[in-house]
Amino acid sequence: MNKLIFANLTHRPVRTLLSVLAIAVEVTMILTLVGVSHGTLDSNAQRARGVGADIVIRPQNSQVMSSLNSAPMTDKMVGWLAQQPHFVLATGTVIHSLTFPDSITGLDFPAFNKMNGGFIYVEGGDPANDGEMAVDRYYAQQKHLHVGSTINLIDHVWRISGVYEDGKLARIVVRITALQAIMATPGHVTVIYGKLDDPKLAQQVVDDLKTKLPGYPIMTMEELTSMYNINNVAGLKDFIDVVIGISVIVGFIVVFMAMYTAVLERTREIGIIKAVGGSSQLVLGLLLRETVMLAIGGTVLGILLTYGTQWLMKHSVPASLVQETVYYWWPIAGVIAIVGALLGAVVPGIKAVKQDVTEALSYE
Amino acid sequence: MSEGAVGTAMATAEVAGAEPMIQVRGLTKVYRVGDVDVHALRGVDLDVARGEFLAIVGASGSGKSTLFHILGGLTPPTSGTVRIDGKDLGGMTNQQRTDLRKTTVGFVFQKYNLLPTLSAEDNIKIVEYIGGRSTAFSPEFEDVLKLLGISDRLKHKPRALSGGQQQRVAIARGIVNKPAILLADEPTGNLDSKNSAAVLGVIKDLNERTGQTILMITHDPEAASYASRSVHIRDGQIV
């Protein structure tokens, strides 16, 4: 039986390849979306951890996973926090959003560097004045930037002072005073990071601060980074579900068309199998196993294509979106592909089962 | 073939003390074509003895193919009784007719009906598989393949075989599960005279050497002459 299934698959190689390719695209769509979602969130979490802080304080009433574009907290809070028990250091940052997912972050470089050792520069160094900007190497690669080149952002021309390794807080940084001036919020910050003498006391310190600063989202860095997941980004989970639904429909249609034409084309062969004693279950089983083979082939190719999209993304938009390989989604995408394909094979399968043997044998 | 061997009204074999391999009584088949009832068979009575090679001879539209389809369990009768190797086909469900084709009846068709994507060997083995048997050829069956003259053509796909070779593969496929009866529908209808003679010779040889019961449908009296007995069918009745 397996020989017959393989023989049928290889008998019409173009149809088989197109079916496999269509299922592969379906799988790639799912895995790429999931990979980008995970990758982008994980990369944000990694950059947050790279700050080296133990505690994060955001503006009153702000949503943790929403982007910030204002500086509502007075920088006096930074000094006040630094005086609190167990605080070793506190520093404020200012964030100005650009087109998604980019943003410019204003830093107090001496404090920031003290907190985590500073950026590791591939070339150049920290901005020396309010007209300079440092970017990570992915952003530099995407925008073809080097030390000394200029870039126009938020209606300002910035000179690149340095290109640093990715992994700390942001991709685009300027001096905090520069951004405060542009945003007309001198003396104010967007987010405050705190470093403790003992990271194990972070939760205790957070609980203490919450009583002193009611209404402020205050959390440990561990808590913040744990919130970088798909379920906490508004609409993302629904979007993924919609894409999966579309993928299943695509798989269904492709396999339906392929198997329907296969059943029509193999009318006589189906009649032969039935004539020699092949049961309806056997005929249906043949078609379904062939469908599963197509789906498995499509899944494997889809996984391979996902590496292609990963490479493409890394080389064309390295700073915008990060795609991860999410291994546990491989079997999920495979099951989705198989289910969609099997659904597509149901109607052709019923048609095959219902074929009259004598009519099938006389089919030309 | 002597005149006396040609069919009679009852077309029954004289097999004293043994149940016929095929016993047909009062068989009718009515097809509905549009609004018209077509009486393809009008009360056929027929006995085929075990080990017999019977030819049913008839012109196009005589009802011989309908008889072939009913005897093979491919289509149900309208009325009458049909017993093959003791099994009553009357009232059989689709599944029971499928089982009959799997275990009791082998087929040889005019157009060979080999699966084009499989080799000759796999065309035979798939029938063994469907029949629930081991797909390794027995030494006895290897001898049959030699008798059929296809031992060296088994790895080829149907398109690489001549019509005569394809029909001999079909014969091998038809008997590989040792059916009680081999039904052949115009087995030489697509062959030239040389290949026809070869195939008919092989069928006759098979009948004589192995005792395989064979019922052959044909319109060709010359083909029928290879059988041990012939009956004629006309307008849905044995004459």
Main-sheet strand order of chain B equals: 6-7-8-3-9-10
What share of residues of chain B is helical? 25-40%
Shape of chain A: elongated
Major β-sheet of chain A, in short? 10 strands, mixed
What's the pLDDT, averaged over the residues of chain B? Answer: 87
Helix and strand run of chain A: HHEEHEEHEEHEEEHEEHEHHHHHH
* Low-confidence sequence ranges of chain B: 1-16
Number of helices of chain B: 7
Any low-confidence stretches of chain A, pLDDT <50, length ≥5? none
Protein described:
The complex is a heterodimer of chains A (364) and B (239). Chain A has 13 helices and twelve strands. Chain A is α+β, with helices and mostly antiparallel strands and 364 residues long. Chain A is elongated, with a radius of gyration of 29 Å. In chain B, the strands form two sheets. In chain B, strands 6-7-8-3-9-10 form a six-stranded mixed beta sheet. A four-stranded antiparallel beta sheet of chain B has the order 2-1-4-5, with helices on one face. Classes of the chains: A alpha+beta (364), B alpha/beta (239). At the A-B interface, helix 1, helix 10 and helix 13 of A face helix 2 and helix 3 of B.
Compact overview of the structure:
The complex is a heterodimer of chains A (364) and B (239). Chain A is of the alpha+beta class and 364 residues long. Chain A is built from 13 helices and twelve strands.
Annotate the secondary structure layout:
The complex is a heterodimer of chains A (364) and B (239).
Chain A: H1 2-11, H2 13-49, E1 55-57, E2 73-74, H3 76-82, E3 87-97, E4 103-107, H4 109-116, E5 121-124, E6 132-136, H5 137-143, E7 150-153, E8 156-164, E9 172-175, H6 176-182, E10 188-189, E11 191-196, H7 202-212, E12 218-220, H8 221-226, H9 236-265, H10 267-275, H11 280-316, H12 329-354, H13 357-361
Parallel strand pairs in A: 4-9, 6-8
Antiparallel strand pairs in A: 1-11, 1-12, 2-10, 3-4, 3-11, 5-8, 6-9, 7-8
Helix pairs in contact in A: 1-11, 2-9, 2-11, 2-12, 9-12, 11-12
Chain B: E1 22-33, E2 36-48, E3 53-57, H1 64-71, E4 79-84, E5 87-88, H2 94-103, E6 105-108, H3 120-130, H4 139-148, H5 163-175, E7 181-185, H6 193-210, E8 213-218, H7 221-224, E9 229-234, E10 237-238
Parallel strand pairs in B: 3-8, 3-9, 6-7, 7-8
Antiparallel strand pairs in B: 1-2, 1-4, 4-5, 9-10
